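Exam prep: given the inputs below (a chain plus molybdenum atom), describe the expected output before reading on.
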Amino acid sequence: MSQNASLDRRGFFKKSGILALMSAVGSEIPFVRNFPGGLVPVAMAAPTMVELNIPGKSLELVVLGDKPVVAETPPHLLDSEVTPNDLMFIRNNGLVPTNINAATWTLTIGSEATPNSPARESESTKRTVTFTIAELKSKFKNYTSNLVIECGGNGRSEFNPPAKGNQWTLGGVGCPSWTGVRLKDVLEYVGLKNDAVYIGYYGSDPHLSGDATKVPISRGVPIKKALQEDALIVWEMNGAPLPIQNGYPLRLVIPGYPASVSGKWLNRIVVRNKVHDGPKMVDDYRNPCTPVEPASDVPNSNMCVIEEMPIKSLITYPASGAKFNFGDKVEIRGNAWSGIGDVKEVFVSIDFGATWIKANLKKPVNKFAWQRFSANLKFPSKGYYELWARAVDKKGVSQPMVIPGWNPKGYLNNATHRIAVKIV
Ligand SMILES: Nc1nc2c(c(=O)[nH]1)N[C@H]1C(S)=C(S)[C@@H](COP(=O)(O)O)O[C@H]1N2
Ligand SMILES: [Mo]
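Solution:
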């Protein structure tokens, strides 16, 4: 449905245009008195699409870019505890490596130079050790856990004024079951010096320019996060080798932080005596340290590296746009997660947030797995409704109803997920 004159300059709906609002969504809006000025009805949002057939991936992924390949998962396809391989989102910064041989693949940790990472970049290991994947499997205890990873830019498309970059809607997130070894066990085996403060990763993906001396991305986490037992070096996703787009044959999975710290096609880890300064560490994945006005220029001195991701949830059933018969009982379902671990509560609303119903919330399978929620809904009359879901983390922090803190690069939008349904 096209946007029309009832939207103001910034694309917000004028509260006065109630009739226009109803004609735009094509039906009565029973709770229209609660409809907040400043929101666009979900029924009017129109995603843009690029056609691309990505081997091993569902055609239902929404492709946001093809060079590099970036694709997100429509929320209604995330309606499960574990995200299947063909539905896991993709965020590449460079090209996908070719001619990979998992049998000869190595991961080097330490201070000797490799083509991708000069020796001077790893100051804080006691020695340099190179592992094959078979050695990682046999030397260290193997673990399998369900871990959420979410792109820091997920939700970017809603910021106003808009932020440059991939226009993620909601689906830059997934929760597969990963198998590998603890990053902690491997780092401790290699031996850390006392001055270690950060790790950084390197992968084998070529830079978009094809220039072999350039690295598309090399990010990392504080040593304390790297030593958390949930951070893994993995070779399997849902019991199968990693899909090529998701980092085959070896990657990091460091849950809770932006997914950009979970290096794919992993071949080297450096241990730094200062904050890692690889590509996309310095100018990207940083947010204003203190809130700023929308559209303002933020000096570098007020930009801080993003660490924990905020509390968030997605409605995965029904799909936005679904129709039900009046009188039907409708079960709403979804997933909730948080960068600090457990989610405490999830609430859902059918009346634009005037009243909230507490959803049933399952315990996580393990820390940093997302938690399924559900609630039975009854609608008082026919018409257009929005279903809203709002999660609260264990510290009592809730998802905001509106787009949170504007920031220059459009990170960390954890606003309440809204979907449209019609009762006919
Ligand atoms: N080597 C390498 N690792 C990478 C990236 C990349 O481009 N190259 N992209 C990062 C970003 S920004 C994200 S959001 C996640 C995406 O992981 P996925 O593609 O498996 O979903 O991988 C991260 N790890
Ligand atoms: Mo990302």
